[in-house]
Task: inverse folding
C-alpha cells in the first residue's frame, strides 16, 4: 500500500452530533496508518484556520484508549464554527491567506467534517485549488443529525439522534399516563426545513407503546386551526395526547410557527434563523382554548449530544466515512464528499462511495411526500422501515465514577 507523504489537516464545522468525533478518529487513524507525517486539527474549523489556530493531533490523541474515548465523546472535539467563505470572485485575499497557511504547513490533504454549509466550504476551496494549480486535495466528510444532505442515503449522526428521539418519546408517552388527569404534551424536535428527525418519533410506536398521536413535518404546510381541531378531538377521548412537531413547521404564508408570537432575531452566517418556540406557542394556545394541562418539551441540543444512547451502526459508519475520505484523497480525488449507499435492508448492508460536492452543497434533502400520510399528520411505515436499521445496537460508554468518560481538548500537554 502506498503511503501518504504529505501532511493532513482536518476540521469540524456546523452543529455537532453524538458521533462526529468517530469520523474525526476515522480520518486521524486512517491517515496515520497510511503514513501521513503529521495530522493537524483546525480549532473551530475554517475560522480557526484563518486565525492559524491549529494543533498536531498526535500530541492530544496518544493511544488506543484515547481513540476509544474520543469515539464515544459527543460534540466537536476540535470545536466548530458557522463561517461562510465568500464567493471566489468576491474576495481572493481570504483564499490566498488560507492557501498560504496550508502551504506553510505542507498540507496536501484537507478534510472537513460537516453538513450542507461545510460542503459549500469544500466546494469553494477545491475550486480555488484547481483554478490556481494547487496540489492540495479537498474532501468532505458528511455529518448532520438533520439528515438533509443530498446524494447520501443518510448521514452519520442521524441514526443516534433518531434513536434518542424514539426512546425519549416512548418515555414521555409513559410519563403522561401517570396521573388520572387529561393532558397534552407537545414535543419540539430539530431538523430545520426537513422532517427526518421529527419523523423518528414514530419509532416509539411499537409492541409496548402506542406512539405519538400526531407528527407534523415541515414538508407539509402547517394549519394552526386544523391542528387545534385535531388536538381537541383527541382530548375528548384520550387521557394523554402527545404530538411531535418539527421546529421548522411553517404556515401557508411561509412564516415559521415559532415566529407567530416571538421575534426570531438571531441569524447565522449562512442565513439560518434560530428556530425555537413552536411547541411553546401551540401549548399556550391549547391551554387557553381547550382548557387542559399542557407541556411543551424542546428536545433541543439533547438530540445531538446524547452519546450515552448512541447507535453502534451510526458510530461505526461515522468512522468508516472518515477513513473512506482519506482513502479517496490518497487515490487522487478532490472536490468530493463521501456518501453512504444502502445495498440491502434485510440484512442491512451499506457501503461508502464518493460524490461530486458541487451536486451536494447547499441542497436540502427533504422527506419524500409518499412517506407522509394523506392528512399530513403522521409518517408512513416506509419511513420507519428506512430509519430502523440505523438505530440498531449500542456502544457502551466507558464509565468512570458512575458517569460516561469523555476525551476533551486541552492546551495542556
Result:
Amino acid at each position: 500500500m502506498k503511503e501518504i507523504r504529505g501532511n493532513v489537516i482536518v476540521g469540524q464545522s456546523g452543529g455537532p452530533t453524538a458521533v462526529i468525533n468517530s469520523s474525526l478518529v476515522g480520518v486521524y487513524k486512517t491517515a496515520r496508518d497510511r503514513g501521513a507525517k503529521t495530522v493537524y486539527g483546525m480549532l473551530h474549523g475554517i475560522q480557526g484556520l484563518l486565525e492559524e489556530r491549529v494543533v498536531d493531533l498526535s500530541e492530544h490523541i496518544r493511544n488506543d484508549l484515547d481513540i476509544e474515548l474520543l469515539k464515544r465523546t459527543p460534540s466537536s472535539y476540535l470545536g466548530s464554527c458557522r463561517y461562510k467563505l465568500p464567493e471566489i470572485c468576491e474576495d481572493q485575499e481570504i483564499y490566498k491567506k488560507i492557501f498560504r497557511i496550508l502551504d506553510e504547513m505542507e498540507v496536501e490533504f484537507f478534510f472537513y467534517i460537516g453538513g450542507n454549509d461545510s460542503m459549500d466550504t469544500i466546494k469553494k476551496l477545491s475550486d480555488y485549488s484547481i483554478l490556481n494549480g494547487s496540489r492540495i486535495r479537498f474532501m468532505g466528510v458528511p455529518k448532520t443529525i438533520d439528515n438533509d444532505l443530498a446524494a447520501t442515503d443518510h448521514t452519520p449522526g442521524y441514526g443516534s439522534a433518531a434513536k434518542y428521539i424514539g426512546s425519549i418519546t416512548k418515555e414521555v408517552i409513559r410519563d403522561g399516563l401517570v396521573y388520572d388527569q387529561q393532558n397534552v404534551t407537545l414535543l419540539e424536535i430539530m431538523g430545520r426545513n426537513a422532517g427526518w428527525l421529527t419523523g423518528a418519533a414514530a419509532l416509539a410506536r411499537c409492541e409496548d407503546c402506542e406512539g405519538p398521536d400526531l407528527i407534523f413535518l415541515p414538508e407539509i404546510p402547517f394549519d394552526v386551526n386544523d391542528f387545534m381541531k385535531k388536538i381537541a378531538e383527541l382530548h375528548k377521548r384520550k387521557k394523554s395526547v402527545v404530538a411531535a412537531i418539527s421546529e421548522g413547521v411553517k404556515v401557508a404564508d411561509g412564516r415559521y410557527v415559532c415566529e407567530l408570537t416571538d421575534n426570531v432575531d438571531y441569524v447565522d452566517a449562512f442565513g439560518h434563523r434560530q428556530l425555537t418556540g413552536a411547541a411553546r406557542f401551540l401549548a399556550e394556545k391549547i391551554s387557553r382554548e381547550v382548557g387542559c394541562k399542557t407541556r411543551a418539551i424542546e428536545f433541543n441540543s439533547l438530540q445531538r449530544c446524547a452519546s450515552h444512547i448512541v447507535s453502534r451502526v451510526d458510530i461505526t459508519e461515522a468512522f468508516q466515512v472518515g477513513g473512506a475520505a482519506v482513502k479517496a484523497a490518497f487515490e487522487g480525488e478532490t472536490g468530493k464528499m463521501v456518501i453512504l449507499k444502502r445495498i440491502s435492508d434485510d440484512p442491512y448492508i451499506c457501503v461508502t462511495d464518493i460524490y461530486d460536492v458541487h451536486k451536494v452543497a447547499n441542497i436540502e434533502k427533504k422527506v419524500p411526500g409518499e412517506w407522509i400520510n394523506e392528512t399530513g399528520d403522521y409518517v408512513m411505515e416506509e419511513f420507519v422501515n428506512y430509519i430502523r436499521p440505523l438505530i440498531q445496537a449500542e456502544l457502551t460508554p466507558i464509565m468512570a465514577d458512575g458517569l460516561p468518560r469523555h476525551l476533551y481538548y486541552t492546551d495542556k500537554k
